[in-house]
Amino acid sequence: MSADQRLTLRKGEKLRHRSLIEPLFKEGETIYEFPLRLTWRALDDAELRQSFRNEVPERIDSLQMLITVPKKKRRHAVDRVLMRRRIREAYRLNRLPLKADVEAESDIATLGMAIIYLADKNLPYSTIEQKIKLLLKRVGSRLAKRHREADSPQQQQ
Predict the structure, then answer these.
(1) Chain centroid, CA 83 distance in Å
(2) Could you give the CA distance from residue 11 to residue 80 in angstroms, rounded to a whole number?
(3) Tens-place pLDDT, residues 50-97
(4) Where in the chain are the domains?
(5) In terms of Cα–Cα distance, which of 147, 157, 99, 121 is closest to 34?
(6) Burial of 101 by CB count in 10 Å (0-12 exposed, 13-18 middle, 19+ buried)?
(7) 11-147: which CATH architecture?
(8) Could you tell me whether strands 110-117 and 63-68 are parallel, antiparallel, or unpaired per DSSP bridges?
(9) Are 67 and 80 in contact (CB under 8 A)?
(10) pTM over 0.85
């Protein structure tokens, strides 16, 4: 990472459109790495345009995510906020390799991800960061695998 590259999470990187969130949970792929579950869905340009009535909003980044900590697991708001902050920080610091992979794929317009906290107690930041790194690496490898599989039938013809 270069010194001039900032790690801030911009509004475009936050998954906030209902038309993208609902299909993510219905059609997305899921990876577990306790205490986290990551559900993700890659969209090409056509699928992204179909998700909206008129036109695609300006601020949709190539990598979007949302974090949820269920009230059923963490009853107190302070605990939910604490875990959300830890997950967001771990994601913010470790997302760049996955973002580069997504932007290198020409057929992916955006990759939507939902990170769900599953544990019923607060875990330290180091554990969360380790699991986030594993999840992001696994998503990156699955994207690469899908890309290789998509290219192999074209090479055989």
Answers:
(1) 17
(2) 21
(3) 888 777 777 788 899 999 999 999 999 999 999 999 999 999 999 999
(4) 11-147
(5) 121
(6) buried
(7) 2-Layer Sandwich (3.30)
(8) parallel
(9) no
(10) yes
